[in-house]
Amino acid sequence: MGRWKVAGGLITRGAETLLVANRRRDGRVDWSTPGGVVDEGETPLFALSREVHEETGLKVDDWSRLCWTTEVDFVDLEMHLLAEVHLAESFAGDLLIDDPDGIVVEAHFLDAAKIDTRLTTAPVWVAEPMRDWLTGPWDEIRHFGYRAMGRSPAEMSAERVS
Predict the structure, then answer these.
(1) Which of 58, 69, 94, 110 holds its CA 20 to 30 A away from the CA of 162?
(2) pLDDT the model gives residue 29
(3) Three-state SS sequence of the chain
(4) What is the pLDDT of residues 87-119, one digit of tens each?
(5) Is the pLDDT of residue 26 over 90?
(6) How far apart are the first and last CA of the chain?
(7) What is the pLDDT at residue 77?
(8) Residue 69 — pLDDT band, cuts 50, 70, 90?
(9) Whether the Cβ atoms of residue 67 and residue 10 lie closer than 8 Å to each other
(10) Beta carbons within 10 angstroms of residue 88's beta carbon
(11) C-alpha–C-alpha distance, residues 52 and 85, integer Å
């Protein structure tokens, strides 16, 4: 079974949270927190800081804590995803979209209502934890688990398992 780990960042400015638009290979666009794959030999926070800077131009000075983890078993693809989402303590810089991977095409600080609208195109394992967070951030680390069936994004369905 293939395994990969990603890290995402909750970066807030007042009542707004940063989301990025990701253009996928098939042309779809979905929104998520900034972040990306944790490469071999990297810690999640190192990878997260690198990815946020690459995707948005922002430099996070400090990550305050882990907010949630998400695990997805892609049954038909024999893949497993582990995602960690961390809250930024402070950051500097201006938004500048220059993703070397060419995936992130937009970034905006959005209020909860606009985030909810943008999450309609996101996979349930991205949207559900973010929506839960926006209804009232919590102090403890939460875990979200999903089983996804299907071989392509167009036919993918998922159910929550924990």
Answers:
(1) 110
(2) 94
(3) CEEEEEEEEECEECCEEEEEEEECCCCCEEEECCEEECCCCCCHHHHHHHHHHHHHCCEEEEEEEEEEEEEEEECCCCEEEEEEEEEEEEEECCCCCCCCCCCEEEEEEECHHHHHHHHHHCCHHHHHHHHHHHHCCCCCCEEEEEEEECCCHHHCEEEECC
(4) 999 999 999 998 999 999 999 999 999 999 999
(5) no
(6) 21
(7) 95
(8) very high
(9) yes
(10) 22
(11) 12
Q: How far apart are CA 118 and CA 130, in angstroms?
A: 11
The span from the CA of 96 to the CA of 57, in Å, is 5
Q: What is the pLDDT of residue 75?
A: 97
**Residues 100 and 110 sit within 8 Å (Cβ to Cβ):** no
pLDDT per residue over 29-58, tens digit each?
Answer: 999 999 999 999 999 999 999 999 999 999
- 128-154 residue pLDDT tens: 999 999 998 899 999 999 999 999 888
Question: Where do the domains of the chain lie?
Answer: 2-160
> For the domain with range 2-160, which CATH number is right: 3.40.50.720, 3.40.50.1110, 3.90.79.10, 3.30.160.150?
3.90.79.10
Residue 115 — φ and ψ, nearest 5°?
Answer: -65, -45
